């Protein structure tokens, strides 16, 4: 018996029409998109149907909602190769996006006990603690919370850390060269602070990357806990063939997130 074709859901038909408009170049990047009520009137359907269509476009990286501002057309999700150590500025430049930053906190601290162990620090060592929100084309993308070993970071401590890449400053003004980084990525939900700084809703999905970076000489340079908007940035990785991958070399970075 020949199977009958299932009708295409109304929300999916609307999704396809809206996607065609976006792909045709009718909107510039970060143009304000239709409101839900505009679309309800345009397609003469329920608000629930419109929300399903718009949700698909958001999930695929064509739209982004910003709390209190509305819905905007955006470029496809920014991809970052998790196997390459690349600063935010370099990542944005690679995608032709204008990077910027805002410092939320910057101070010199005595290392907490857990970081003393993880970063192999002595009792007299100090850390530079910096929290920055990183923006692409003036839209918030990442909250960076970093701890730098003071002795390495001191030569660039007085530099402009909002307008410049820390790694570029490091290479320009010091002899420190960065080596390997061990990274761990975890899915988390936005709390009130993340929602405020990243213009998302409380409970929205985010990505937390814990990163431990060494110098080429094998000394720990930085530990960071960075929170990414998962609707704007994702991570790619390349795997080795199965028969070359029987041992695990990952470092578990099981630390409680530090508040700022």
UniProtKB/TrEMBL annotation:
Q: Which Pfam families match?
A: GntR (PF00392), UTRA (PF07702)
This chain belongs to which protein, by name? GntR family transcriptional regulator
Ordered alphabetically, the record's keywords are: DNA-binding, Transcription, Transcription regulation
- Annotated spans, Disordered: 238-260
- Supply the PANTHER family for this chain: MANNOSYL-D-GLYCERATE TRANSPORT/METABOLISM SYSTEM REPRESSOR MNGR-RELATED (PTHR44846), MANNOSYL-D-GLYCERATE TRANSPORT_METABOLISM SYSTEM REPRESSOR MNGR-RELATED (PTHR44846:SF1)
Q: Which residues cross the membrane?
A: none
Q: Please verify whether the record's keywords include Nucleotide-binding.
A: no
Has the keyword Lipid biosynthesis been applied to this entry? no
Instruction: State where composition is biased (Basic and acidic residues).
Output: 243-260
The family database entries (CDD domains) matched by this protein are listed as: WHTH_GntR
Signal peptide per UniProt = none
Q: Give all residue intervals belonging to the HTH gntR-type domain.
A: 8-76
């Amino acid at each position: 018996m020949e199977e009958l074709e299932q009708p295409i859901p109304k929300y999916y038909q609307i999704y396809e029409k809206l996607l065609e408009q976006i792909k045709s170049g009718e909107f510039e990047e970060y143009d304000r998109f239709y409101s839900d009520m505009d679309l309800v009137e345009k397609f003469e359907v329920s608000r629930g149907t419109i929300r399903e269509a718009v949700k698909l476009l958001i999930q695929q990286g064509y739209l982004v909602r910003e709390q209190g501002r509305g819905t905007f057309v955006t470029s496809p999700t920014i991809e970052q190769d998790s196997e390459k150590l690349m600063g935010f500025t370099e990542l944005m430049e690679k995608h032709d996006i204008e990077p910027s930053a805002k410092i939320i906190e910057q101070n010199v601290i005595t290392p907490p006990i857990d970081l003393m162990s993880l970063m192999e620090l002595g009792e007299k060592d100090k850390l530079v603690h910096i929290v920055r929100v990183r923006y692409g084309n003036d839209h918030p993308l990442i909250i960076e919370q970093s701890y730098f070993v003071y002795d390495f970071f001191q030569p660039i401590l007085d530099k402009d850390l909002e307008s410049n890449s820390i790694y570029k400053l490091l290479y320009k003004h010091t002899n420190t060269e960065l080596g390997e980084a061990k990274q761990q990525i975890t899915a988390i939900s936005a709390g009130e602070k993340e929602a405020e700084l990243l213009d998302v809703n409380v409970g929205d999905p985010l990505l937390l990357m814990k990163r431990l970076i060494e110098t080429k000489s094998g000394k720990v340079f930085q530990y960071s806990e960075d929170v990414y908007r998962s609707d704007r940035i994702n991570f790619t990785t390349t795997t080795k063939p199965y028969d070359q991958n029987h041992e695990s070399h990952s470092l578990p970075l099981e630390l409680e997130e530090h508040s700022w």
